[in-house]
Amino acid sequence: MESKIGVFLCNCGGVINNIDFDAAVKKVTKFPGVTCVNLSSNLCLEEGREKMISCIREENIERVVATCSPEFNEHIFREVLEKAGLNGHLLSMANIREQCSWAHDGNVTMKAVELVKMAINRVWLLQPIEKKELPVSREVLVVGGGFTAISTALQLSRVGLRTTLLEKEAVLGTRAEELESFYGFDTSAMISSVEGDENVEVLTSAEMTEVVGKIGDFSVRIRKGEEEIFRKYGAIILATGYQTELALAPEPRLRAEEEAIYGINIVSQEQFCSMLRNSSLETQPKTIGFMFDFSDGNSRFPTLATLNNALAAKKKWGSEIYVFYKSVKVDSEGMEKLYQEARNCGVVFIKSDITPRITGESGRVTIEAKDVFLGEDIMVACDVLVAEELYLPGEGTEKLSSLLNIRVDSRSFYQDENVHLYPVTSEKKGIFLIGECRGDLDLGRVLTDISSVVMNVHGLLSLGQIQVEVERVKADPQKCVTCLTCIRVCPHGAIQLIRADNSKEVAGISDLACDACGICAAICPARAIKFQGYRDEEILAQIEAIGESLNGHIVAFCCEHSAYPAADLAGRLRLHYPENLRIIRVPCAGQVDVFHILKAFEHGAATVLVLGCEDGACHHITGNTRAKERVRYCNMLLKEAKVDGRPVAMYNLSPNAPHKFVRAVNEITKIIEEYGR
Amino acid sequence: MIIAERKPMEEIKQLMSPYKKVLVAGCGTCVTVCWVGGEKEVAVLASQIKLARSADGNEITTLEATVERQCEKEMVTEIKDKVAEVEAVLSLACGSGVQTMAEMFEDKPVFPAVNTTFIGMPEKEGLWVEMCGACGDCFLDRTGGICPIVRCAKGLLNGPCGGTRRGGKCEIDPEKDCAWVLIYRRLEKQGRLDLMREYYSPKNFRAVKRPGKVQAVKA
Amino acid sequence: METKNVLVIGSGISGVASALELANAGVNVYLIEKEALVGGHSASFCCKATDICSRCSACVVFDKVKEAVIHPQIKLLTNSTIRGLSKKPGNFRVEITQQPRYVDVERCIACGLCTEVCPTDPKAIYLPFAGATPFSYILDEGLCLRFTGEKCDLCRENCPTRAVEFDLKPKRQELNVSAIIVATGFDVFDAKEKGSLGYGRYPNVLTGLDLEQILGREGYLRLPTNGNEPKNIAFIQCVGSRDEGHGYCSQVCCKYAMKLAGLIKYQNPDTQVTIFYIDLQTAGKGFAQFYENYKESIRFVRGVPVEILQTSSGELEVRFEDITQGKVCRDTFDLVVLSVGISPRNTSWDLARLLGINLTEDGFFDIRHPLSSNETNVGGIFLAGTCQGPKDIPDSIAHGIAAASKVIQVLAESAIQGRGNQGRH
User: Fold this and answer.
1) Is residue A288 part of a domain?
2) Distance CA B26, CA B171 (A)
3) How far lies C162's CA from each of A42, A380, C110, C153, in Å?
4) One-character DSSP codes across C291-337
């Protein structure tokens, strides 16, 4: 296939002094397909870009190679191509500064030329990618019926989006008691407001039974009593809250015949709130005990509830109040002040490192603990003990997370702990998690969550359409064997079974939901999935451009979110590493295929490095774990083929960790040298 | 579908040792789905063999081809040109495919690169489990859809052996669920526990005369 | 909806989060930043991953700042501050003063020649840290010879793209915006105020911020005095928080101390780490797992040190009350890290006056209503991030997005009013 390739080299103001550009230009001009080679000193500046545009037009260039890091400048050159009348994706870049000139000592002309050749080989094969608007449903499903869900529905309504509020109980307003106590909310007013809102449909005693589809187009089946309701939504928001469970001390030693009865003498915070609201003179407790932070050190809620309730009880009844705790959780707005207020009001705080002993005696509850400050045991007999509660995921979390196929965190709340998902997204596009159902949050954080999700959902759905890249990743219906592997592994829920033209059921990748990671492409056993820009042939073309160098080269597949920027930063710091490293940029470590690695070996690589994000921080959730598994498998294959001694290595790092990048490269180089090539 | 497992490289190398130019042939049906013999694995194996032979100092050239179903003569015939170019064929298909290829290209040695293991299904992504023993006398109607011939370590037909471990695990393989516990629970859900009281005589393992032959009713 | 303009003051992570949300929604965003660099404090934080991510979110800052700087809907103005404001309903006329940057961001290609030829030591023209955004060099007037009256033109002469220019005056411009988001961030508590802890006197007493920047820059921790590996490190919590004058918890310190401790131990498993604390803040998403992994290998001591003295051998002796043991103790360490808290900016008062917004008694910007932590007492002016109160990075991002959400609502409402109730979209 003939194609006119224009190569634009830049010597960065003439400052790059370890590349012989004249020699480079001479060599590059001879490469097949190259129509013209230009040397600039300021390619990324306005004058440089103008010259590029003129050159492209004059020489009828069809594809472009530019030497610069794609980290900051890829979009600039894509724009140049668009302005010159070409599709912006017919561009490949050769990083001859950050990852070549700055990274090595001595003359690096040969490497620079090779990097350019790699880019030329790749650009030859690139296909144009178009953009298109796809319609999306503007309706939103909010699951839950408490404060968070109701507020969200109201705010969505205010920005013009219609919402269904789906609550499994018979009425809205779960856990209203505490909210009203602590924050003075008028729950019934909120409920009336949302029930009367013309943009909100309230469905109570209703549950989701099935969800298929993807962002912009979720098909949801809801069961309400005997009725089955079918709906389509553009986004789904889970605001299902939490539940609490009393966590009594490990050996409460409550004597059954005594009157210390759970529910009357030992209560939960919510029950205590009711007591406060509904008490008459006869039932006022004179001494009240609170305890928290012994069984569950990861919650803020107990501190918040205790301080509010203790203060309220002090003010209303003037009771003697003793609070047993390990560490007060004050890392929320206003909490320290509340804590000081409680102390100033006369609430006694007893700090203890060990869980207090609870016993029951003559209708009262006794708490015994060693006070850390006094170094002595303190014993308090209370009329009521507000016992420690465990803060747990809401009922139905497991069922719903499996229905929607979304991950939960290490405490079984919604939302994986991956930092790239914060604040409110899940790994599935269009499914959001807000409020307490994703972990212990205080009111301030819950409110922020609500506003965040409204912003996100409004941004996605308000126009009724979303712009996508058409068929960036596509499963070829002719080659697809419907093994369902890609559907199962896609971390973003972007692949479903569809009927192709010949009515065969095949995998269909949604342009809306696809996040272009390439995990599916790498795992497809029929090589049916084509990821434009990173197809097998485009990767192989880069590998094949690497020539024989004296010490054998090392091919490093660098994830664009982590290792590639880290390598750039290493260049900026002028941290040096061996020159025989050849970096191939990939969208995710999970896109690297065993096949690519073996081909690199076939082509003469001394070894191969795969570099991706830190464990737990993969932008595509499972990419780095899959990469690790593939590297392990690859090493097994190499061992089988008796090509061992040159192990493939996987390293994990962050984009802001240039030292880790250099350490990884130096380490692997050393290993290779020890084995002798 | 048919599940297979790749043979160790040592064995494959041994089979390929006399040859300098081979065709690595894949199949686009069962073995693709179980990640062992599709177009991807053909490429990987070809690469691996080349590297292995290179390391031995005895280079080998490979051609690659994948047919939709290697057990169909009409489909296999599509790659006859490639077969003609090589000295031998290394097939990643199940035994059925290997034999079809061998029959179509009688003058070329056709070698199996995989071991055909069982009829099974994916329990989860990447993990295939045996489900059916191809006994030719299916009685899944009586066992709530769970086959004890395959899934019970002892192949019992009339209830558990009595050695079931805690948690419903098999006496022989503690990682495995006791098939009869599974059957009991399934029948219980369906309200058909009366089937557990029925006695079934020993299975006729000669129900299918080997090699099997099935003539479909003419259309 | 016609395209609206919004001003975001401050380009720390919160301001950047707000700016990105608004820009993606089609709004024209002016992002002004008083420094020459974008990203605020957290842009220079280090990755604290051990063999798993420790959820510090420093890399998220890196990603977002990068995205903001190249976004076509965001106009970045560095070295800029707001000087004047006049209000009309739905419209603010803002006067911005841009101090000379001397190195033009649009023309600097970061070739590094200027720093090579610069005669001063430390260099007056330099790249502040590897991930500095925008990726262009900056000039420090305090170090540059020209500003002490000497003649020097080396950087300007040698710059291949004519990016360095000295004959510059502050520029004034006026912007008309429909809303303003204040995201001016925080100041770190000045540990010198607690003189007895030795910060500024003993080189091996560092703050948490110092530690972040050293690790980000060097990749390893070495003692400032002799470059050796520290063997015994102490972290002191609540320095400038939960005390007289700071009646709040800074929210970030317990976690950052533990994550930094975790990283140091991962790099050198033999290093002993002690954390002195009052109440350990271990709540928050993603922290439970981390705490499980490290609570046995870090020594936690209840008690806050009051004095640090340097011994004759150069070690640091920390005197503290061990609350659990009930007595005063002394322990020696190679290195002490003061977990300094988040304080309001010392420029908050001026900005509050200029914009007409209120301050809380702690000195942060005040909110109008406890149910809306982004709204100030002035309609159309919103708050994002730590300028409103201490927050960690994920909370700052969320707060920034929430502020953008409030702005969108205000813009939408004014559009409806403007078109006389034609309804939305």
Assistant:
1) yes
2) 39
3) 11, 77, 12, 12
4) HHHHTTTSEEEES-EEEEEE-TTS-EEEEEEETTTTEEEEEEESEEE
Is A587 in the same domain as A629?
yes
CB A666 within 8 A of CB B76: no
Cα–Cα distances (Å) from A516 to A87, A88, A508, A509, B195, in that order, read 19, 17, 14, 10, 52
pLDDT at A20 over 90: yes
Domain count, chain A: 5
Of A221, A160, A142, which is closest to residue A435 (Cα–Cα)?
A: A142
Domain range for residue A313? 264-294+302-387
**Spatial separation of the C-alpha atoms in residues A251 and A297, rounded to whole Å:** 19
The Cα of A471 is separated from the nearest Cα of chain B by a number of Å equal to: 22
Q: Where in chain B are the domains?
A: 2-117, 133-207
Chain A and chain B share a number of CB contacts under 8 A equal to 73
**Out of A485, A594, A598, closest to residue B125 by CB:** A485
Is residue A124 located within the same domain as residue A157? no
pLDDT value for C2:
65
Give the three-state DSSP class for A325.
strand
pLDDT-based confidence at A150, cuts 50/70/90?
A: very high
| A250 domain-assigned | no
Show residues of chain A in contact with C284, CB under 8 Å.
Answer: 298, 300, 331, 439-440
Residues A150, A197 share a domain: yes
A161 band by pLDDT with thresholds 50, 70 and 90 = very high
Which pLDDT band, with edges at 50, 70 and 90, does A314 fall under? very high
- Say if the Cβ atoms of A455 and C21 lie within 8 Å: yes
Task: Determine, yes or no, domain membership for A195.
Answer: yes
In a domain, A622, yes or no: yes
Phi, psi of C151, deg, nearest 5: -90, 125
Residue of C52, C402, C404 lying closest to A615 (CB–CB): C52
Write the CATH number for A34. Answer: 3.40.50
Strand ranges, E, within A500-592: 505-509, 529-531, 554-559, 581-586
Residues A632 and A551 reside in one and the same domain: yes
Q: Which position has the token pair 């298109």?
A: A132
Q: Does C324 touch chain A (CB under 8 A)?
A: yes
Q: How many residues can be counted in chain B?
A: 219
Instruction: Reply yes or no on whether the pLDDT at A647 is more than 80.
Output: yes
Which residue has better confidence, C254 or C423? Answer: C254
pLDDT of residue B207: 80
User: Which of A359, A387, A415 is where one domain is finished?
Assistant: A387
ipTM above 0.90, yes or no: yes
> What is the CATH topology of the domain spanning B2-117?
Rossmann fold (3.40.50)
C223: number of Cβ within 10 Å: 17
Helices A147-158 and A187-195: angle between axes, nearest 10 degrees: 40
Interface contact C159-A569, CB threshold 8 A? no
Contact A173, A187 (CB under 8 A): yes
Contact state of C398 with A445 under an 8 Å Cβ cutoff: yes
Does residue B214 sit in helix, strand or coil? Answer: coil
For residue range C160-181, list pLDDT tens digits in order.
999 999 989 999 999 999 999 9
Would you state the structure tokens that stand for residue C15, as one six-digit string?
Answer: 């301001």
Report the C-alpha gap between A237 and A457 in whole angstroms.
9
Which of B106, C55, C80 is closest to A616 using CA atoms? C55
What pLDDT score was predicted for residue C412?
79
Assess whether chains B and C touch, using the rule of 3 or more C-beta pairs within 8 angstroms.
no
At A62, list the tokens. Answer: 């069809």
Same domain as A567, residue A638: yes
pLDDT at A262: 61
CB C248 within 8 A of CB C390: yes
Report the C-alpha gap between A236 and A284 in whole angstroms. 46
Residues 6+ apart with CB under 8 A from A161: A138, A139, A140, A199, A457, A458, A461, A462
